Amino acid sequence: MAEHYQPSGRSEVIPQIDRRRFLQAGLVATGTVIGAPILQSSMAAAAAPAAATNTSSDQIPRRILGKTGEQVSIIGLGGYHLGTMQSLDDAVRLVQEAVDAGVTFFDNAWEYNDHRSEEWMGRALQGRRDKVFLMTKVCTHGRDKNVAMQQLEESLKRLRTDHLDLWQIHEVIYENDPDLHFAKGGVIEALDEAKKQGKVRFVGFTGHKNPSIHLKMLAHNYPFDTVQMPLNCFDGTYRSFEQQVLPELERRGIAALGMKSLGGDGQPILHGVVGPEEALRYAMSLPVATTISGMDSLSVLHQNLAIARDFKPMTAQEMQRLRDRCKSFAADGHLELYKSTKRYDGGVGREQHGYPPPEQLPL
Amino acid sequence: MKTTRRDFLKVGATIAGVASSVSAAREAVFAAASTAEALPSTTTKGDMLYRNLGHTGAQVSALGVGGHHLGDLSNVDDAIRLVHEAIDAGVTFFDNCWEYYNGKTENILGRALKGRRNKVFLMTKVCTHGRSGELALQMLDESLRRLQTDHLDLWQIHGIVYDNDPELAYAKGGVLEAFDRAKKEGKTRFVGFTGHKDPAFHLKMLELGYPFDSVQMPLNPFDASFHSFEKQVLPEVNRRGMAPLGMKSMGGTAWAIKAGVVKGEELLRYAMSLPVATTICGMDSLDVLHQNLSVVRGFTPMTDGEMEALRLRCAATAADGRYEPYKVSLRYDNPITRLPHGFPVDETQREVKEMLEKGDAPWLAP
Q1: Quick check: A174 and B342 CB within 8 A?
Q2: What mean pLDDT is predicted for residues B65-69?
Q3: Domain span at residue A155?
Q4: A148 and A138 Cβ atoms separated by less than 8 Å
């Protein structure tokens, strides 16, 4: 038998934990995170984020969204987690509290939770549509422009609006995705048409897998307004979007949208490697327009709001120290499962790419 | 929807059934001028081919019996019968690993090899996964006990599959120090490493300079155009005079065969046509063994043109990794491979299910 095996205590058996649990765990580990003294320094993070406005103490700061001229809140509300909440009422309350607190950036995707995420967000935004910057994502995963345009109509209907502020190609994570998207008659042509029809103002793409795939998308020189990617203190030293993609976006004036600031499933926080406040602060200190955060309870929302309101960028030194501290944990990818496993690869994309569904190939 | 190796070989059987009856001349040496890189020096005895194992001076059968699938058979007697039949057919290369099914497959092979140890070239793998050389030596003694022998022919580091594995293997006090000691003590003749994930990790292992005798890797026509071991690692291993060992000739699953993209027989022929010492195949039934033996019996290397045509046929579906799940998912990372690295265990994996059923799952230990 395996008598020599020394359990590291770092492993977890699926199914995964929920985000609420790790945030609570993280809070215990880090103690009184809110209101901790934050160093003021002239060594503000490299390429400081586009000027924050709206800095009065009870407001959520905003930043410029690349070259679009728009401003968005530095924290964005992730659509996936909204659709995992207990009820429509809970989701509506969460969205409305976020809007009232000054969150303007709202994320979603055509495929999240069998469309419930868009449905619920649409219901919650009734009467508040003009207060938010609304994004959703198109999920062709290699299929043609017509599929994309049909999904756009469905997204608009579910979101109860006549236009999106931002429409992004979802989950560019398979190595041949860039080729498929840019193929004649592909989704890129749908982005052009949707803009022409006034149904979307800006366009972009997202993905969580590998910086090289993002760079392949950018190499086509299409005028994307935004690019979304995982950004956190582990990514900084492992297959790094921060190192490889972020500078390229700055060079092109494309707005960077951060996600997975807590490593996707909060494992780093559960294991006490980082606290939620420093993890989120790190992500927000990068040159990004916003950091999209999944929130499935009011307590998570409140915690994020407090961090965002108090936000002062980490210094370059603080960021380096945090990357150094995380480096040995980051090195094998077990804290960024979206890069190293199949766990975060959605069912619709798998089907288009000939992969088994999540229940048959969870990791 | 569990596919087994048996399923896809059945599909392939229709073709391979007409195995060539051209019985190769005894002791014939293949003229390998047609392949891009020369095949290792090859001899034929009976129906079996034997190739040089790099610069070691040893020769091994061109077909190897994979250890993991011995644990997939429903009972031990069937597994033992399979090993005996393979040996009788001239197979000498036997693969195994300390961690497969918590030691079950080493135990099976040990029982099967009683009285036959000197007829085979016995390999097993060590599973420190970044931990110490001392642990490696404990695992070695345990492998020897289970395999009922006093020495291995080949001992390999199992599963170089995570980005920091090379660095950890080369760390002071790590597994490579155990290699030196085991060789000196005569507990193993040769050493090597294995992995199925990324050619970059293999290249890192080679660059760091340890004099390995063998390097094991996935080789098939899908690999050829997706993070390719064939393109990136195989030439480097041969340049260094080490022995390449092929595995996953079918892509690890029957998915491509079931989808009608390729046939099992042509996949095995492709893999064997590459300049490797042996191709290790998992076999979980006598049918599969017979099937593989028939491919070996009729074997002539594919021409460059045939190989290129097959690669082209596979290229479109190779491009997103769908038929090489070992490169893009954790499915082929054994539970005990994952644990020291902190990766989650997957209860849909057959091996994990069996460990849970037996109450023998180390990750649940208090």
Answers
A1: no
A2: 98
A3: 51-352
A4: yes
